[in-house]
Description:
Layout lengths: L20 E4 L4 E7 L4 E7 L5 E4 L5 H8 L4 E6 L10 H8 L2 E5 L3 H8 L4 E3 L4 E4 L2 E7 L8 E5 L7 E5 L2 E2 L2 E2 L5 H16 L7 E4 L5 E2 H4 L3 H7 L2
Parallel strand pairs: 4-5, 5-6, 6-7, 11-14
Antiparallel strand pairs: 1-2, 2-3, 3-4, 8-9, 9-10, 10-11, 12-13, 14-15
Amino acid sequence: MTDPVTGPDDRCHVEPGGPALTLDLGDLTLTKVSVGPTDNNAYIIAAPQGPVVLVDCAAEADRLTEVLGDRTVGVIVTTHQHPDHVRVLTEMAQRTGAALVCGTPDREAIRRRTGSGPDGRWDGDVIRCGDLELGVIGLVGHTPGSITLVVTPDHGPVHLLTGDAIFPGGLGRTTSPEDFATLFEDAAGKVFDRFGDDTMIHPGHGDSTTVGRERPHLGEWRARGW
């Protein structure tokens, strides 16, 4: 494994109401912006040409539209069904005409909550949008259908958009020991056993981190149950 990325830049800090942060990944860019009253991160994944992918239409449709600029949105991905991640999903879908995608087990809940009907993707699926190909990992426990997106540039580390499943310092909230156990086993097996230490983790709220920074603490997470 490679050494974990360390230093101030890999936390990718953005402030609510503050400017967006764009990472140059070589053949791709990844833009992160905080929106809404609960410091939700929305993300834009873009190739040099063609439509972009917008992840989590959490709030502030006008601000998301401003950050997008004149770029065409081909796909909107929702990482999971919780209300704070879909506040402006329907509005952004109407503004952009983009296809909608979410984790298959969360489809019906999102449809009921927003009136929108996203297509479902799950473990091992690929989301294609122009020149972009994003892997999909299902991490069950925070919700039944939470998905993590795998962004793989031609050069440099992999970037994971984990929604509310994995954060710096622990896993996302679960409501039972059984849900925590499921989420822990999914995160350990599908993320920490699979990806190198330099892999970036970009969560649905707050700062980013790396697999290498979090890996030594998995035993602590399991012992405390959150």
